[in-house]
Design goal:
By secondary structure, the chain is α+β, with helices and mostly antiparallel strands. It contains eight helices and twelve strands. The strands form three sheets. The chain has a four-stranded antiparallel β-sheet. Strands 2-7-4-5 form a four-stranded antiparallel β-sheet. The protein is globular. The N terminus is likely disordered.
Length: about 250
């Protein structure tokens, strides 16, 4: 008998992980407070109940790479399933936040009793791995200008509020944080942000960033814009950009 395809077609694309998790303890974190890090690794699975949480990797030299910004109803802390020492992941409250937690031992028991929870977790982790693969490809193939544009598009789609004119408004991420997301310096990000603003791709201040997503997307996938300051991001370019980046973030 031929297998039926009706069930997969009717199945939702993703399991609702919250439908399989019981209510647990909630902790409040102030803006900038570290939830876990290399000195105190994760031993729990976390859910953002409110606010936003920044996930980063901390190098041995103290450098920071922004992995993702977690929003309400998203899980993080899966590194707690690992028993390896010297984990480099860090979670920091990007704003005042409430976080619900489940100990890893409790989560393991829940997964054993609720197979659909295991499916939901696998879907979440597989989706994030796919997104990280795209990030790695961008680091390998894109120059800094395009990496920044892709980062802004990603962040505005995840965290922004759509407007009637097609733009997205989002919180005022610092140029340092954007630099951590694309692997460059704050000075270079400032240079390109000023250029993007002049070209009409975005507006920004200390209150908010407004991104004209479609215009920015068309610019980075089309031909190189005539007003581009730098075309490639090799070491020599970095030196030249640092010398040129005398502008600072707006007040």
């Amino acid at each position: 008998m031929a297998p039926s395809s009706a069930a997969p077609e009717n199945r939702p694309p993703f399991e609702d992980v919250l439908a399989h998790l019981p209510i647990s303890n909630t902790t409040e974190y102030r803006k900038g407070q570290i939830i876990y890090g290399p000195d105190q690794p994760s031993t729990d699975i976390y859910l953002v109940a409110s606010g936003k949480v920044k996930l980063s990797r901390i190098s041995e030299e103290g450098g920071e790479v922004l992995l993702e910004i977690m929003r309400t109803d998203e899980l993080f802390g899966q590194s707690g399933f690992l028993t390896v020492p010297n984990r480099s992941e860090q979670a920091t409250a990007l704003e005042n936040s409430k976080v619900m937690t489940w100990p890893i031992s409790a989560m393991e028991d829940l997964v054993a009793k609720r197979p659909r929870l295991a499916v939901a977790l696998l879907q979440i982790f597989a989706q994030r791995n796919a997104e990280f693969a795209l990030r790695i490809a961008s680091f390998s193939l894109d120059n800094i200008q395009r990496r920044l544009a892709r980062s802004l598009i990603h962040l505005c789609e995840r965290l922004g509020t759509p407007e009637e004119n097609g733009s997205f408004r989002m919180m005022p991420f610092t140029h340092e944080l954007l630099a951590q997301h694309i692997g460059t310096s704050r000075e270079i990000v400032t240079l390109y942000m000023n250029q993007f603003r002049k070209d009409g791709y975005l507006r920004y201040s200390r209150q908010e960033i407004t991104v004209y997503r479609d215009v920015l997307a068309a610019a980075i996938v089309g031909t190189t814009h005539s007003r581009t300051v730098i075309d490639r991001a090799d070491a020599q370019d970095t030196v030249e950009v640092k010398a040129a980046a005398t502008a600072t973030e707006p007040s």
